[in-house]
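User: Teach me something about this protein's shape.
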Amino acid sequence: MQLGENHRRLVSFAAAAALGSVIAFIGACGGAPPAETPTIDNTKKKEPVAEAPAPASSVDPKVVADANVDGLLASLEGSPSDPPPATPSTPPPTVPRGSPATVAPSSWRPGTFMTKALDDLSAQTVAVQRLAEEKSMTVGFDGTAATFMGAYMYPGKPVKFSRTFDKGVMYVFVSGSSRASGINISVRDMSGRQVAGGTKGTVVFVPPTAGAYNVYTEVGAGSPSSFVTLGVMRSGGLSIPVSRIQESVYGAVKKAAQLSDGVVKRKIGGGLVFHDETDWALYGTVLDKGEAIRFGGLDLKKKHVLLGSGDSASTDINLQLLDPSGRPVSSDMDPDPVAVLGFNSPSPGPYTLRVQCAGATGKSLVTAIVLTVD
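Assistant: First, the predicted structure itself:
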């Protein structure tokens, strides 16, 4: 996802044409709104959690990692009523973060779609930031809830998320895709009235009142189906280098490719694919050490694999899947930088995914991916 200077210029020219309305809006603002205390989304609220010290271990990390992958695949082979497979007797090790993956494997096709859409999102966010700088403004990623999301989308099937926004703060929704010819974004209040929207893949929204809004994203009519990423930016905001996004996402993509291959070899299914085309399959958020966030409303009907990974600042990511009553039904709380859990769903849910940055050297960009056995 590194951008050469010529490519940066081409992106800037293309974005300037596509984002003309954004430039006009920013110019009309006459500068950045005053800074306000961010409101954390009430339904996906970040929760500070005390960190438990990781036990020391001299166990070979690769042995435990292989055992965990094998156990996860075994959990997907039976029916939801079958007892869970025996837990490996080998204790989990403390795994250092080391060097995160910087190249996504090309063998798993869904991963190539996702990384291409993230490449596009990165290019568009760089363009938006440069356009804002020309107006003496600073625009960065929103760090109060989900920073970016992604889903595989089809024309006529919008994907929605709901969260709270601050009154008078300028938000910019920026999209990227693997091959879509157009992306529509619509912001609606809770009565269903559209308060902002556009068909160029980038929309500016200044909430007239603080509160919850629904944001709908879909590929345009006549466009091929595509993996689409949506970034949430705001005045001020966080600067996240492209390399940090790579580090955060590619670790989970690499593990997903390994698991997808195992699903095929063990004849569990045809591999791993993105979760439901009407629901988000990718979440990215910024977390401090010990902090957690919840993503709710997951409709899980089949056999699923969920993964979590972080950038170079993270050392331990935990995942928990909660049923409608809040009870954990699947967890990976082992001290390692890539969390993986399998879930053979007995009922649709809805379920909530809890993602925790249990160990880190500083703020970390953490990614969660929701997959389904094809």
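Now, about its shape. The chain is about 25% helix and 35% strand. The longest strand covers residues 226-235. If you'd like, I can walk through any region in more detail.
User: That's plenty for now, thanks!
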